[in-house]
Amino acid sequence: MLTVYSNDELQLTADVLVVGGGPAAAWAAWTAASQGVKVIIVDKGFLGTSGAAAASGNGIMAPSPENWDKVLSERYRLGNNLANLRWIERVIEKTWLSLPLVENWGYRFPKENGESVRQSYYGPEYMRVLRKNLLRVGVQILDQSPALELLLADDGSVAGARGVQRQNHRTYTIRASAVVLANGGCAFLSKALGCNTNTGDGLLMAVEAGGELSSMEASNHYAISTAFNATVTRGVPFGWASYSDEAGNDLGGYINGRRDPSFLPNALMKGPVYARLDRATPEVKAVIEKSHFIAFLPYKKAGIDPYAERVPVTLVLEGTVRGTGGIRIVNDNCGTKVPGLYAAGDAASREFLAGLASGGGGPNAAWAISTGQWAGEGAAAFAKSLGSHAHERIVCPAGSVGLRSQSPTSETFDSEAIVRGVQAEMFPLEKNYLRCEQRLLNSLAKLETLWQQLQKTPKQDTVRDVEFSRRAAALVAVARWAYFSALHRTETRSEHIRIDYPQTDPNQLYYQATGGLDRLWVRRDWITDAIAKAPVITTQTTPSVSKL
Description:
With 548 residues, this protein is of the alpha+beta class. Helices cover 33% and strands 20% of the residues. It is built from 15 helices and 24 strands.
């Protein structure tokens, strides 16, 4: 990989390596360091400003104890029988106990009657405080240093990672006793606010190392945005909008006073949709402009009064970032199938918290705080169990597609063209929102063609070439897993909509694990003993599937 810079490669060692730069990564690094181990954290951007959390404000699912039961039951209801009560309770409790720490580190929550109100955070300040705290406890931070592949020891356990440093134009290798993947989900470079660093790299790295994914069919979350600046995906203000078509006809869009989540996708497939925030009272205006101020910046820049003028709206794909699918975790410390490898935040499957529904916003913020700490604890304990000889293990890189040629020819592939090809299959509502067997098969066939193109030689003249080649591979891989899982869940449940199976099947109470690179597979992991069955594994190559 990038042999032109091999002589300048940075080589480091750590007990725990954390990959990512958002809240989950920061909490994991702090927790591991608190256990007395050496921690390095690598981020694709600048830890503190990159990622979805740093881009704006966000709610936190951290109710006061007297409301725990209410929030617990509501989250379980939204999970449509696939969420896990014990995990929801763990997340709520851990988050509630953790937020005073943030205040002690210097974050100023608003106060009411002298008491701190810890129900939301202002992203830039929250992440600034987390970064400052990591430096205080001695965590080494490598910014602008995307990790691209894991290292494996000869016994199959994780042993570190390799990546590139953009600013120094070199590769790096970090030998580590344990690794936490907390580098986000995948929004397919849709330009959703803060999500362009979320390209599924961690998911690909985990599968290459022997890990599994789960609930990848819940990978099609779309968020509302103004069409003239389709990046700020903050939906709360649109809860007070009136919707109309191009001719000005009222389109409705509400059920019992609440916005119908299925209204806008179906309306947009018929033609342009316009919104005007004329349902907002003066009191509501004051609240939403303060708590979601970034949603109003596009209006101010364009000189638009959103309360009086109609603006065109659209939907932006946020994929697994506000969806559910991610790396399958197998124990309470967020461990994966790979010894020494842990997952946290949006990189991990949130099925225990949300089922196949979105955990976007407050629930995912709480998930990042809690799973980050559990993963950090698990990684630190694993590192200590290996002792001082961990870095003497014989290791090999686990990465393949997008890093090393799988073809005897020297022909290179066009990473930008491959990205456009993925987006052509993942962005359209008629393909990804309203799914059916034939559309899924058609898209899988096209994605398989892109996967075969990735077997050619990646362009590696610069560190950016290396990064973008690998990014293209991750996007194709995640798209294939998402649609392959969607193909095999033959029902409509929460955000997974199959127009050829429009009903929710009460017998499909299982999570779908998935994985594989050239050969994809799906396994049913049944949830309750009452319907426990032997695992049903479906394994086929994508070309075979596309001919059904």
